[in-house]
Design a protein that fits this description.
Catalyzes the reversible adenylation of nicotinate mononucleotide (NaMN) to nicotinic acid adenine dinucleotide (NaAD). Belongs to the NadD family. InterPro entries: Cyt_trans-like, NadD/NMNAT, Rossmann-like_a/b/a_fold. By secondary structure, the chain is an alpha/beta fold. Helix content is 31%, strand content 17%. The strands form two sheets. It has a six-stranded parallel β-sheet, sandwiched between helices. Strand 1, helix 1 and strand 2 form a beta-alpha-beta unit. The N and C termini lie far apart (65 Å). The structure holds adenosine-5'-triphosphate (ATP) and nicotinate mononucleotide (NCN). Adenosine-5'-triphosphate binds next to helix 1, strand 6, helix 5 and helix 7.
Length: 216
């Protein structure tokens, strides 16, 4: 359903993500939701330290932030916020939305999530305090079931073109020397290559023991 923005309040989409790296699945999700709900803009918010990804190697926040800036630069309705990466400690959406509310006191927020993230939402910190801060928009994602869990007043479901892309797959492809062209924006391909993100770590140099030959 397409809804028109006739009121005075700015309708802002919030696309939170680890973006390690940002890919076309994220960009299509934001673009489709913006069009179907008539949003004025979408703010991409790279996470600082995602608590649910602890124990996993997450790339430095500045790299993820810069890749998100590069990926969104050509769309005048997209911007990137540093609120999560500049806040110390683990990242929780309750803090993201409170910080954005301070910056945009009159806005209505639409927090965009893929079906996989939405399925975990009842485990998010202070979930009962989140509903008044934003409306949630769940988007389809291949391999995941999309549901509003009976919370129609708080969660809108939106079907988007199926993009079977994940950041995990992009990282693995780079590590295996496979291309990620057309899975991520061109500038992000180049950023990954320039900073050697996701590439296998070079083998440590073999230090010969003194006075002994090293066989290779
Ligand atoms: N291909 C996709 N289609 C729809 N939504 C997506 C897609 N990829 C990611 N999302 C959504 O974008 C948000 C941010 O996702 P995230 O940055 O964790 O990417 P990811 O591809 O799931 O990463 P990873 O594989 O590292 O877990 C989440 O709400 C996620 O569900
Ligand atoms: O607030 C929470 O407890 C919480 C738990 C899991 C995910 N989130 C948010 O959901 C968004 C997508 O997260 P991820 O891990 O799929 O990239 C991102 O903005 C996270 O901060 C938030």
């Amino acid at each position: 359903m397409k809804t028109e923005n006739t009121g005075a309040r700015r309708r802002i989409g919030v696309m939170g993500g680890t973006f390690d790296p940002i890919h076309h699945g994220h960009l299509v999700a934001a673009s489709e939701v913006a069009a179907s709900l008539g949003l004025d803009e979408v703010i991409f918010v790279p996470t600082g330290q995602p608590w649910q990804k602890q124990g996993r190697d997450v790339s430095e926040a500045e790299h993820r932030y810069l890749m998100t800036v590069i990926a969104t630069a050509s769309n005048p309705s997209f911007s990137v916020s540093r609120v999560d990466i500049d806040r110390a400690g683990l990242t929780y959406t309750i803090d993201t939305l409170k910080d954005l509310k301070l910056q945009y006191p009159d806005a209505e927020f639409y927090f965009i999530t893929g079906a996989d993230a939405l399925a975990q939402i009842f485990k998010w910190k202070d979930i009962d305090k989140l509903w008044p801060l934003a409306h949630f928009v769940g988007v389809t994602r291949p391999g995941h079931v999309l549901s509003d869990f009976g919370r129609k007043e708080d969660i809108t479901l939106t079907e988007i073109p199926a993009m079977a892309i994940s950041s995990t797959d992009c990282r693995q492809r780079v590590a295996q020397g496979k291309p990620v062209w057309y899975l991520v924006p061109d500038g992000v391909v180049q950023y990954i290559a320039k900073h050697r993100l996701y590439h296998p770590k070079p083998e440590p140099a073999v230090k010969p023991a003194e006075g002994k030959d090293v066989r290779v």
